[in-house]
Write a structure and sequence with these properties.
The chain has helices at about 5-20, 30-35, 50-55, 70-80, 115-125, 145-165, 185-195; strands at about 40-45, 60-65, 85-90, 100-110, 125-135, 200-205, 210-215. It is α/β, with parallel strands linked by helices and about 220 residues long. The protein has a domain at about 25-140 and about 180-215: Vaccinia Virus protein VP39 (Rossmann fold, 3-Layer(aba) Sandwich). A seven-stranded mixed beta sheet has the order 3-2-1-4-5-7-6, sandwiched between helices. Helix 5 packs parallel to helix 7.
Length: about 220
């Protein structure tokens, strides 16, 4: 597939700089739909400014968010109501995950920064029986299907940018200040390794250069897509 000309790519960059929106937050409500209606403890790995951790408090009695960036952890604490059942800690994943078990573990746009197999193994080890793991991640395009999905995402990405910024002054969300890096694993690599560590895990390519992984400890129960 022919790569778009540089002039077009620069124009897209300027457009999205003027109309920022959080691709990861787009999946937050979808994540909630994968979870039980109520649980005791939840962990969000790579919690950033805490948007998802605060949403998880709708389902869990206690939520713990961890991130390796002290600045963004401080910001997450500022944005969280004093009496909310949400705590944030500076910690490196996967080795620094606070002791579980957790009924829910989420990890959004973070696992490609980590040793993949070790991270999934640690997540599994910290899940309570019947617990649910949900990952939204990035993968490296490697097949014609990957590139077609990426191409389809381009106009939809622009449309979402306009919708998300309609009627308000555009500004870069706190959740978009984290350091980014490209994904190295292909989707096929991710599927193969994930199913080795998490038998029965459900993985799917998604729009906006993401994939999702859902795994439930000790159960083959399927949840809505």
């Amino acid at each position: 597939m022919t790569k778009p000309p540089n002039r077009f790519l620069r124009a897209l960059d300027r457009f999205h700089a003027a109309h920022p929106w959080d691709h990861n937050a787009h999946y937050h409500r979808w994540i909630l739909r994968q979870l039980p209606r109520g649980c005791d403890r939840a962990l969000d790995v790579g919690s950033g400014s805490g948007d998802l951790a605060r949403l998880l408090a709708e389902r869990a009695k206690a939520v713990h968010g961890i991130d390796s960036d002290p600045g963004i952890v401080a910001r997450a604490r500022e944005l969280t109501a004093p009496h909310a059942p949400v705590a944030f800690t500076v910690a490196d994943a996967p080795s620094g995950i606070p002791p579980g078990p957790y009924d829910v573990i989420t990890c959004v746009a973070t696992v490609h920064h980590l040793p993949f197999t070790e991270a999934l193994t640690r997540f599994r080890g910290h899940l309570a029986p019947g617990g649910t793991l949900v990952v939204v991640g990035l993968f490296r395009e490697s097949t014609p299907g990957d590139r077609l999905l990426a191409l389809a995402s381009v106009p939809l990405n622009a449309a979402m940018a306009l919708i998300k910024n309609k009627g308000r002054k555009s500004s870069r969300p706190d959740s978009m200040t984290a350091v980014t890096r490209p994904a190295e694993m292909t989707f096929a690599d991710i599927v193969r390794e994930a199913r080795r560590v998490l038998p029965g895990a459900r993985l799917r390519r998604r729009l906006f250069w993401r994939y999702t992984l859902v795994w439930r400890e000790g159960s083959g129960e399927r949840r809505p897509q």
